Amino acid sequence: MAAVLVALLGGAAIAGSALEVYRTSTAESGTPIALPHEVSPPAHGALYPGTYSASLLTTMPKDLFAAPKLSAACQHASQLPDASTGPASEDAKRGDPSWRRYTGLNPSRVALYLDVPSATCGETIGVHVRGSGPVRLRAFRVGGYRGAGARLVWSSAVFPARAQRIRGISGPTRLSTQEWPITTTLTVEPTWVPGFYLIAAVDSAGRAGSLAPLVVRDEAGRAPLVLMASDLTWQAYNGYGGHSLYLGSGRSHDERLANRSFEVGFHRPYQGSGTQQFLSMDLPIVRFLQAHHLRVDIVTATDVDARPSLLAGRAGIVIPGHSEYWTSRIYDAVEAARNSGTNIANLGGNEAYWQARLTRDSEGDPLTEIVYRAAALDPVGRSRPLDTTVRWADGPLRRSQSQLTGAGFSGVSVFGPERVMDGTSWLLRGTGVHAGQVLDDIAGNEVDSVLPLVAGQEDPRTPPNIGVILEGAFPPPGEHPGLTTMTVSYYTTPSGAGVFNAGTTYWACNLDSSCPLQSIGRTSQAVVDQMTLTALTAFSRPRAGLTHPSTAHPPVAPAAMAALLGPLEMGRRHAPRPGAPDAPD
After folding, report:
1. 357's torsion region: left (phi>0), alpha (psi -120 to 50) or beta?
2. What is the pTM of this model?
């Protein structure tokens, strides 16, 4: 990709080993690189006045890089009919449930990371392994596979793992990265059907210490749906080496919070919360899509940042359970797609909450993610305010989640039931539920809510035609006084796009009852499954809103919702676990 990068830069020399693209710099203290096609957005109030009706951006950001050229064998594989490689034929293959032994939450024995979070047919990927003794790589493709959850696609020859030094943080950004030498490589062969893969490094006793996610892209891009895997969020929570974008070193939680990193590298093994993110928030959706034979291409958030055209012309975009960190190019791309008639299925909560910036290496691959969380801390806050890494809803960005997905972040550590508010919604067809019915254990951890459209509390960025399908109320935690609500909602846009917002990060793991802190009952799970299938089936055709126009069904204010539910049907709040990055702030 280096030649393409140089061409885009007009032959200019690339300073250092890292390139921060799109109104960003080679380093936080470096000189901004002006790409030839770069056009800075106008000040807030011109292009983004903050109202739903004026959010009509339809122009995709230009791709930073061209699509890779495929070999003849890879071109042939990409042109095979669905009868050979489609979701139904793939799901019929024999699965291998042994992948479940490789949770990857504690990479103390064997740890690995890949050079890149995604690749395409024919690409060779560097694998960096830390351990001792003989090790073998195993590649599992995630899917339904009749309950197995994945199938074994490839195993490497045995090779020796070696000790690697675990680096600490460095520089004013407290950069957390590892940069170990390459231990071995793997090549994405034409037989690797595009999808979501887990790469495990297994020792001689059959134990794996860590998992490396790998998205294999389909460059043909024929599927009507595209799933945008949340690799920016995985790395934000990943604490390998002792630091994440949430916590650093220290004796107390407050000290660890104060010592968090502002910059984390993609060249690190995943552990703990970083691993849990893709296991619980992305994989259940991947399995659900294949088990129901829905055609989907999978890309990563960093892929969309580099090549927004990956979303162009799709019938629907699927956002996984927890897609908290977006760059400006991602936000622009999703918004432009929606305004051009592409449906959005947000199967989670707390989406598009923080703006992030990326650096890329000399090949154009993602290198680090930068998030300061406060304009006063961000060194580009004054010179490039629209690149400031703050909440998307806050100044100077002022691009609320509500104007995109219909609802905004409303709480964390939230668990409990939801009440059916609109029993006539087309998304409830086939569920058998009725208005007023209470469904247990729908809400989980981080939640969104449509703000009440009542006098004095209106949010002009909330779509006026939004319909609230389910709603629940939850008591306040100690640090956030006041009741909060969670909603499941749907609205349509002037372009004809339909937008479904599940409203909770646990919607994804509720699909297969794999949520870490709450088990969903059978009735509620059946409703979640059917609503998801109904939405994704409809969203497999563009402009679903023309067939399924939304009807305004406003939310109930928190106090009124609590009174409606009563104490026995109120949700509950769990205090965030000490030292765990549960809260988004």
Report:
1. beta
2. 0.89
H or E segment and range at residue 529: helix 522-539
DSSP state of 94: P
Contacts of 71 (CB under 8 A, 6+ apart): 121, 122
Question: How far is residue 443's CA from residue 350's CA, in Å, rounded to a whole number?
Answer: 13
User: Burial, 369: exposed, middle or buried (Cβ in 10 Å; 0-12, 13-18, 19+)?
Assistant: buried
Q: Cβ(469)–Cβ(448) under 8 Å?
A: no
Pairing of strands 408-420, 438-449: antiparallel
Q: How many Cα atoms occupy the beta-carbon half-sphere of 361 within 13 Å?
A: 11
Q: Using one digit for the tens of pLDDT, what is the confidence trace for 404-444?
A: 999 999 999 999 999 999 999 999 999 999 999 999 999 99
- 470 forms beta bridges with 420, 488
* CA–CA separation, 403 and 491 (whole Å): 11
- What ranges in 364-520 are assigned the alpha helix state H? 402-405, 506-510
| Confidence at residue 459, expressed as pLDDT on a 0 to 100 scale | 66
Q: Encoding tokens for residue 422?
A: 């609109």
- Environment class of residue 147 by beta-carbon count within 10 Å: exposed (0-12), middle (13-18) or buried (19+)? exposed
Residue 196 tokens read as: 């979501």
Collect all residues with Cβ–Cβ distance below 8 Å to 481 and sequence separation of at least 6.
none
Q: Regarding beta strands 498-501 and 343-346, do their DSSP bridges make them parallel or antiparallel, or are they unpaired?
A: parallel
Contact 197, 141 (CB under 8 A): yes
